[in-house]
Queue: 4 jobs
Job 1
Amino acid sequence: MTAEPETWRRDGRWATVWPTGRRSVAAQHTAGGYPPVPPHAGGAVSPEVAAYAVAIYSQAGDTVCDPDCGPGTVVAEAVRARRHAVGISRDPDGWEAARAALTAVKAQGAPGDGMILDELPDRRSWTGLGPIDLVLTAIGPPDDPADPGGPAGARLRARLASYRDLPRPGGHLVVVAAYHVAGVDLASEVAAAGRDVGWRPVQRCVALTAVPYTRVLGTARPPARARAYPVHQDVIIFRRDGGRAREPRTPDPPPLAPAPHAALDSVTSDRSAA
């Protein structure tokens, strides 16, 4: 990491909270028609986090790319939001899953369009949908935090460097990182690696991934040795130098879901009245 003054730390927008945890991740996947995932999975972009990032850092008609698209959540949410979407998955099973997610949202009437590729395009082969305005992807926990070649080291820098030519000048790269997994502050490692390979970090956010109700989190009665689950992910936003950057737009928050205990109180009141 360079020793240059980190001016982004003096930006009041650097520490913000995204209201993306009003439903559990499992409930979001069910509502969106996605395959079920573990409710506390930290290495993927949840539908609400993807939709929120797309709304802030792109506009209708823009192109959004996930260069490691996993189950295709980013692609699907971008298409729902009237964006062009490009997903990339080198894993055949992942390609099939992402393609299925894209096909499903198109069948539901999503107005955007998209494609799933099996490798990063280069300047000679790129025949996509035009300049990319937003690169949005997730970086999961390292397989071995002690491995110096893991995501905290050379591999992470190489991965972020491979995204450098994807966005247009002034475009954004948004990285969703799992929070403090296995003692590793992954978000800080991502910010440092991004700066090392030429990205300019402009904002750091917290994206909620769960509602703060133990019943929804599946731990209605904590056992003798209660387990703690992370309820947010860190989000690092970079900008590519050159060109004119758009100011991020804050979308309207989704309607607040009722707390589980409020629903139980309502049922109890109805029974008492009966």
Job 2
Amino acid sequence: MIPREEPGPVLNGLPTTLPDTDPEETQEWLESLDKMVEADGENRARVVLLKLLEHARSHGKLDVAALTSTDYINTISAADEAPYPGDEAMERGIRRMLRWNAAMTVQRAQRPGIGVGGHISTYASAVTLYEVGMNHFWRGPDAPGGGDQIFYQGHASPGMYARAFLEGRLSATELDGFRQEKSAAPNGLPSYPHPRMLPNFWQFPTVSMGIGPMNAVYQAAFNKYLTNRGVKDCSDQHVWAFLGDGEMDEPESRGFLQEAANEELDNLTFVINCNLQRLDGPVRGNGKIVQELESTFRGAGWNVIKVVWGSGWDPLLAADSDGALVDLMNNTRDGDYQTFKANDGGYVRREFFGRDPRTLAMVEDWTDDQIWALRRGGHDYRKMYTAYKAATETKGAPTVVLACTIKGYDLGSHFAGRNATHQMKKMTVDDLKAFRDRLDIPVTDAELEANPYQAPYYNPGPDDERIQYLLERRRALGGFTPERRRAHKPLPKPSAKAFDGVKRGSGKQEVATTMAFVRLLKDLMRDKDFAPHVVPIIPDEARTFGMDSFFPTIKIYNPHGQNYTPVDHELMLSYREAKNGQILHTGINEAGSVAAFTAAGTAYATHGVPMVPIYIFYSMFGFQRTGDGFWAAGDQMAKGFVLGGTAGRTTLTGEGTQHMDGHSPVLAATNPAVVSYDPAYSYEISHIVEAGLDRMYGPADEDVMFYLTVYNEPIVQPKEPEGVDAEGIVKGMYLLAPGSFDGVNQDARRAQILASGVAVPWALEAQELLKRDFGVVADVWSVTSWNELRRDAMDADEQAFLHPEQGHRTPYVTARLADAPGPVVAVSDYMRQVPDQIAQWVPGDYASLGADGFGFSDTRPAARRFFHIDGPSIAVRTLQQLAENGEVPEDWPLRAAQQYDLLNVNAGSSGNAGGES
């Protein structure tokens, strides 16, 4: 047995270090409280104390801490409930049809030969939470002020499909294609809210735990951003996020609450379905998750509305003059509440009300059935309507509605409240019959007995008054939801002139590719039609990336403006915040930045306004730290540019292991929505960005994100060569520096060196060493994208495999190297797995060099020598390839290694040892 006398966590202490200047008076106050408790009872004393605290806080200067947790009862009393505006009988009939069809969607998906799974209990607990919103609150896309954005809980997707079935948007055939996207195509439905898989239906992917609440916060913030900047008036749009209480354990679920409060996102409402269960059991068996969440949200500055008990409890609470029932509710743990609902009314009488003779007396005249009929608040449409109404009327703060429900509600005793209910997907014939009877669904025993896995859906047809009511409510609210629309205004394309500046190179000045990109962005921002659509996103260290130059011009977005004098206000590049600022400076917050990127990158669909997010971050902290966010962005079909600054394993000298990125292109390659580039020079960046704008926002309208790795190592940026292979830059590789035969025989040995990003100068160094010291002529290729070369080659192979009648298209990399003489050596500032991506499509001998292993603090030349990716190392590896083929003497590689002192890290000299621009 769990000892019930153990105290719970202290949530509301009021610590103070102030001296007690009058102990006698203090004692009088304490004695007065004791006498009040003795004379009038604990409940009266509680009321007076709460009133005193509330009154003290209203003075403004007393600095009394707020109570973060209140009694385990509804926040809004029965006396303050709003009148319900809907036809209650009609809506009850709709909810019953939805319960049945949602359950049958999962039940039928378990038919023999299919068995694809599904979740039958989540939506059962949340029907009322959704239907009150559907019928009375959520504006569709045709609403005058624009539609609301609703983040549906992933496991509740069968309920959304069931509603679309009644609305006539989905057919029974499509419901039968649940979780069979390919085998039932074109009638398959994805398991969860996946916009990429059902692009005209779902708006937001939510099933990856924690991503939904995070993205909802930044969607609401972005709506305010668009409004404050004058891009689009989103002031009449509201963001709703439906979450599970177990999901709130995820750091992302709670980590952005302060952001929402700081920005006063009163256009945001979280609805947390508190059915007290995670996937395998209770959320807080020994505690109270509602109280914990209330404390967390109140502490973060949110408006909290608890909907714990249904209307049946109102007379009992009204009669609770001495607070015995409230006290019992406060002290009963979640594990017990779950157990109560897995039993019957007699059990609840004994094990709940029976804990106190005063509460037992309250129900002495009640039958067990009456006790069993007492519902939790999340199943009471009147309570939920009042909560939603209060949430939408709250100003100056976001709201969370904590709604208590039962997982598997109405599915029967085998499901409701059971630990295994999340994994239960099948109903027996008896379960189906009982479920049918409770819901009054006109399905016969014979139909259920014939095949339990083919229990029919129920749709009475468009002439039924319930269906007409349902459709009328959606018409009145502006159309269906969820619904995703793709039509949007065209993005004004910047003039070609904007891309020309960085193509001229940097003259004699050494400039890192990070700064080259920033210079290109400055030129693009001079285009008055294009510039308003740009959303620069920086988690922190804008100065590291040279983006502080934007502070005084486009300014940093802050919904409150700048109400202080910055310490650097006298400087030209001082920190400037403004209500209509354009830069989203999210602080040390990569996950939030990805959420902001997602909101901006999907504005073309959510708001019909194309925006171009440009998110720059420490390369190491991108796909490694926030990869799940980028997958969700890909699912939501976000567009925009992602800049991995200070990229590479060896360029960020001195920072050490955690900052040295040797693998982000590998991680980026795993995301099908990411188009990844590793440019070496500013003119390459110009062509890639222009191509990216064309692919994402031009006629092709592709749902991809462009990822560019840029470096902090300053080099002289060369002028774009005459007749440069612009197509090759975009496709992934081009011949940068053909080998010269000046000073060597025309029959000199040949080789090909492939390099990307910051490694290109080392390849050019190796080209020079090979010719000078060994008479070998090497061609140097700039590989702007190993990933795109691989994808092109894979597409060619797939075509040959699946459609041989179309012939075998030669992969781009194969075609470019087909006539290139000699072995190929590939190098980058990343692990060998990056250049190895193209190995199988390179004709002839292929070897790669890379920075495998952990990074470390040192000079750039020393690090490159340690990893053996510098110029001399490339030269030695090339000679080894030639020697293995018998094209040069066997001892040449050893001679070269000794000549260059290859095993001595202090002998390294490749690259710029200093400079942080």
Job 3
Amino acid sequence: MSDSCADGQTSDQAAYLAGLRKEFPEFGIVADFRRPIWMAVWGDRLLLKASDGLTLRERLVEVSRAL
């Protein structure tokens, strides 16, 4: 994989992360693109983990309906 491809993927993931933060402002959302791990926290009551942004979004949607 070339560096430009990796940079493009990282850029896409960063854009997706920014979108999640905008869509779910009540959650703290972080991601480590190299591992990969995506996490969302809601105060000290809830921690969600996923291996990709799409899975994390699905979990956030489910949890948000229950809050």
Job 4
Amino acid sequence: MAYHHGDLRRTLLQAADEAITEHGVAALSMRDLARRAGVSHAAPTHHFGDKAGLLTAFATAGFEQLAKALATSRLASNSFIELGVTYIRFATTRRSLFEVMFRTDLYHADDPGLLAARAQAADALYAAVSELPGGLLAADAPDGPVRPARAGTAEAAPPEVRRAGLAAWSMAHGFATLWLSGAFPDRDLDPAEAARSLFAELTRDYAP
């Protein structure tokens, strides 16, 4: 089966998604990906270099998708709580991506493309901390419509915004990790709904 260059990359990443979903990242092999994609055994290595290179591209795609989801949620919902719910929904519906994205031992964590995608996701979070209703520093929220997060928002965040952003991320990521591991109680609930209720309860201590 022949693929154009761009199609091969997409096909291999889709194959990686399927393989990790079925057997976990530890069992991932370049030979299996080639078989799933219907290409030569050498094609994945030729395209990505090695398994770490493949997982770098995989994690980058995950951060790009997360950044897009957070940015869309931020603009559409105008709600800090819904931003957290979006994070949970991403984690529980894109599990293979989520579980690789934060395993920096698996990929080239200094890859420029990965760092840029990760920064976009962080910008959406840190902008929401002080700008969205329900944000941990919402008392300082400006009036008017929500604007797209500016590039570099996370990096330039003052200490209080950074602390609040880390607290919010810890809550959402902790919930997602507990849910995915099966340790969270009340498994009959929808994870997004459970998260929405929990985040609303927690933010009562911070919102004015």
